[in-house]
């Protein structure tokens, strides 16, 4: 199968996306990979597989690669003798953060009729924004940690008891996240978060909380990964998560009882279906007194959470043949015809 | 000012968008208008003002107009001697329904750095989907009518007492909407709604409910329209709403007391700010026992609700100079550099 990986983007996680994508070279063993880079100023480049090293990007040398144009039906290489299409079977959106996870890439792919693996538009917006994720989870009866919401212009007053965790609502990879132990640290933590976003959520920080990650998708049936209990320190900071994005070997399943595993899987399915059709997502859950709480949805997890699946490549093939189809709308101009008739203009 | 109106789209409201846009020729008296048509198969065409009649579209003659390409920085006319930009100051998104109101056009304009008047991506998704509008309004303390939610695959059982109104969650202009007086009519109404969408909401239908419409935007200050009490029959069906989209003369304000007017305005402001920055929206409210309920948000109202404003054109000029700016993200490759250093590859 020919798979075009989209990566980069105008995103704080641009570099993480490059790391995720380079990892894919090892993960996809049978496929023919194409690499479509979205530069930070949002130009598209077709990168040859042999050039796919991190240095190509950090040195700026990617600018010497072929620039391509997005049009109806796909990407095209413009030339003197017309535009030549870049051919592939499916695009895989690996742009983390803005552009990739916020719904823009989903919009572009849908609008220009390119088959793609990634959350669709609505799924992106609801999972990219941590506040909307709360609304969405609550509506499904999936528990989440209690929270407060603060905008940049709001008074900096919170009622959640310390310690708390402050998160910009629209970022991943722990960017702008702080743990605040007491009031004296609040202001600085909010300054940091508001560097990245106009809105934050504040949640109680639960020391030593059990965390479990479940990834999966729906093809012709559920394809659920093993459940992982990530090893972590206080929380994963950007550099540690960064390394986390280059994981390519399968990990061991968490040691847990069947009842809890089932609970986690049921919550995953509630979140996933039907909104996330066409995507491989990872949900991170907390377990507190045997109750399962959604911590966050990773709509485009680092290195696609490949390390949680037994045969990731084959699953991607199945997913590629079970993508949601956009409804075809026929425009027949019957209303305009009838108005014209009524006005005697037809 | 040079204003490019985007209209058409792959949408059930494609024809309504054409009517809305033709109306704009009368509404904008001082501006230089450009017309960018999105055909139902999502090609872009530049339409000359003299050709802007409904017949151009219904006859298919628009296909003889200049096709243009969307790229970084704007729309371009491709030619033998390179691509020539289509120049304008601001784009005005007048695509009703899918593509325009669902967030795709907002994504495209943002991604390709085109200044535009319309709700942004998140605002589009939250207002295009009537279920998400409920979540959003509730989170702001804006009351909405109680509802039930049904998916195509759910059992067709409702608990709301009859009569009820059935609405596809993702359509406007009353498409697919039915009033159901008793259980025997339910199945047919759901069949109709599910023709257009995979999900519906069911609300009590309140006979003779008072409805008030408030439009507005925020520029350097609030710019609120008069409040209109729309004259209506049971509800406006597609054809009546269609005619409604061509309104171009100012209407009279509803006769109402100041307290109620203030309540409506306060609810409008809560909905609008800050999510809808950059857009002119219309909110339709119900008033039941002196309480104000949000019925729906029209993120791109018919003919931009121009008929509710005293000087619509000047307001658009002010809005065009107060558009939300996307945060600039600098990518400096410092993490990749540091990994390379650690690996001795730098």
Give the CATH H-level superfamily of the largest domain in chain A. ATP-grasp fold, B domain
Number of helices of chain A: 10
**Quaternary organisation:** homodimer
Spatial ordering of strands, largest sheet of chain A: 6-5-4-3-2-1-7-8
Q: Shape of chain A, please? A: globular
Number of domains of chain A: 3
Report, as a whole number of angstroms, the end-to-end distance of chain A: 51 Å
Greatest interface by residues involved: A-B, 58 and 58 residues
Strand portion of chain A:
15-25%
Note poorly predicted spans of chain A: none
Residue-averaged pLDDT of chain A: 93
According to DSSP, the number of beta strands of chain A is 16
Helix and strand content put the structural class of chain A at alpha+beta
Helix content of chain A: 25-40%
């Amino acid at each position: 199968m020919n798979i075009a990986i989209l990566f980069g983007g105008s995103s704080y996680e641009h570099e993480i996306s490059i790391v995720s994508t380079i990892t894919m070279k090892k993960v996809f063993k049978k496929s023919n990979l194409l690499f479509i880079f979205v530069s930070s100023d949002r130009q598209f480049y077709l990168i040859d597989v042999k050039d796919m090293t991190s240095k190509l990007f950090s040195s700026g040398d990617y600018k010497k690669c072929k620039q391509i144009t997005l049009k109806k039906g796909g990407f095209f290489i413009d030339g003197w003798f017309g535009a030549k299409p870049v051919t592939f079977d499916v695009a895989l959106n690996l742009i983390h953060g803005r552009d990739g996870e916020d719904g823009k890439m989903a919009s572009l792919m849908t609008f220009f009729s390119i088959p793609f693996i990634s959350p669709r538009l609505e799924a992106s917006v609801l999972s990219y924004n941590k506040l909307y994720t709360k609304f969405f989870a609550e509506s499904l009866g999936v528990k989440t940690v209690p929270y407060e919401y603060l905008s940049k212009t709001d008074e900096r007053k919170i009622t959640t008891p310390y310690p708390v965790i402050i998160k910009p609502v629209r970022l991943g990879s722990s960017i702008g996240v702080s743990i605040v132990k007491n009031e004296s640290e609040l202001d600085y933590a909010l300054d940091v978060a508001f560097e990245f976003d106009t809105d934050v959520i504040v949640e109680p920080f639960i020391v030593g909380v059990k965390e479990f990650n479940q990834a999966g998708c729906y093809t012709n049936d559920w394809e659920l990964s093993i459940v992982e209990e990530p090893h972590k320190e206080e929380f994963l900071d950007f550099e540690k998560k960064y390394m986390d994005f280059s994981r390519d070997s399968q990990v061991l399943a968490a040691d847990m009882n069947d009842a809890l595993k089932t609970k986690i899987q049921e919550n995953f399915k509630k979140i996933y279906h039907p909104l996330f059709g066409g995507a491989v997502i990872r949900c991170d859950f907390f377990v507190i007194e045997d109750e399962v709480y959604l911590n966050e949805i990773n709509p485009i997890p680092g290195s696609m959470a490949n390390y949680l699946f037994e045969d990731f490549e084959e699953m991607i093939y199945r997913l590629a043949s079970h993508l949601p189809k956009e409804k075809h709308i026929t425009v027949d101009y019957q209303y305009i015809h009838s108005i014209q008739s009524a006005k005697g203009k037809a």
